[in-house]
Prior knowledge:
Elements: H1 30-53, H2 58-62, H3 67-82, E1 84-87, H4 93-105, E2 111-114, E3 136-141, H5 145-154
Antiparallel strand pairs: 1-3, 2-3
Amino acid sequence: MRRRRRYAEYAPLRPGRARRSWLRTAQLNVVGWSALVGVCAAAGAAGVLVARALGASGWWGLVVSLVPVGAVVLADRRRWAAMETSYGWSGSVGEVARIAQELRGRGVDAEVRPDAQYEQPWWDRIDAPAEAPHTASLVYPNRHEATVRAVLRQHGIAPPERW
C-alpha cells in the first residue's frame, strides 16, 4: 500500500533554515507523547530489574528504555520511505517520461503524471493562446530521493528542496 503526502508544509516565517523534525510523518499529541514516555518508563523499569537479576549495574538496564523510541523512529522512517511524492518543473510530458525511464533503469519506481489542464472560462478565451503546453510531474517513492536528485542534476534540472 502506498501512502501519499497530501499537502506540503509551508516554510517557516522566521529567517534561517528550517529544522526537520525527528519524526517525518507522525505528529504526536499529548496522548501520543504520554504513551511513548509511559512505554519507555516501563521498558526502563523492566530493563533495570533484568539487569539486577543478572548481576549487572542497573544503569545498563536503563538502555532498554530507548528501545521504544527506536521502534517509533524506525516505523516512522519506513512509513515515510513508502510514501510517494511528486515533483514538477514545467517539463513537457516527453521530457518527464525520458527521465522516468532513466530512473526505472536505476531501479526507481517512477511514474509520469500529466498535470491538469486549466479550462478557461469562455469570456477569457479570446485573448488566450490557442493551446497551452502540456506539462507533467514526476512521481516517485521517498526512499529513492537521493537517486532522483542525482538524475535531475545530471539533466540540468534543479532538484526539489529538502524540507
